[in-house]
Design a protein that fits this description.
By secondary structure, the protein is of the alpha/beta class. It has four helices and five strands. The strands form two sheets. Strands 2-1-3 form a three-stranded parallel beta sheet, covered by helices on one side. A two-stranded antiparallel ribbon has the order 4-5.
Length: 134
């Protein structure tokens, strides 16, 4: 159940630190973030909040569909449609590997970010972000 964090895999201390460091890196780089969208899963919401880059908005199309792969195509189309209608803005989405892979074809490492731009075919990957090891 999405509202019961006790039933979910939650962030470790290392994951919380990683979220804080990623947010600090975004702020230090001077990136203006217009919106922060998050999956409604507890670990994604906590990650988004710990980044401290803006108010966090739960966004159901980026909820994990790992246990319901049949939902994947519709959720991915919803994300593509949302991105296509954005106009010039910077949106950070905190989501799950299965969602990122469906949208981009990339299997990201834990904690890795994928930067995309809307395109006629859905999205174009323009970069990948990782924090340096401590």
């Amino acid at each position: 159940m999405l509202t019961d964090c006790a039933t979910q895999r939650n962030l470790s201390a290392a994951g919380r630190d990683q979220a804080r460091r990623l947010g600090a890196a975004i702020r230090e780089a001077g990136v203006r973030v217009d919106r922060v969208l998050s999956s409604r899963w507890c670990r994604a919401l906590e990650t988004a909040r710990l980044m401290e880059i803006g108010p966090v908005e739960p966004f159901p199309p980026i909820d994990s569909f790992f246990q319901d792969r049949g939902a994947g195509p519709a959720q991915t189309r919803a994300v593509e449609a949302f991105l296509a209608g954005l106009g010039p803005s910077t949106v950070v989405m905190v989501t799950h590997q299965v969602n990122i892979t469906a949208l981009t074809g990339i299997v990201p490492r834990s904690g890795e970010g994928v930067v995309v731009r809307p395109s006629a075919d859905g999205v174009t990957v323009v970069g990948r972000l990782s924090l340096p090891a401590d």
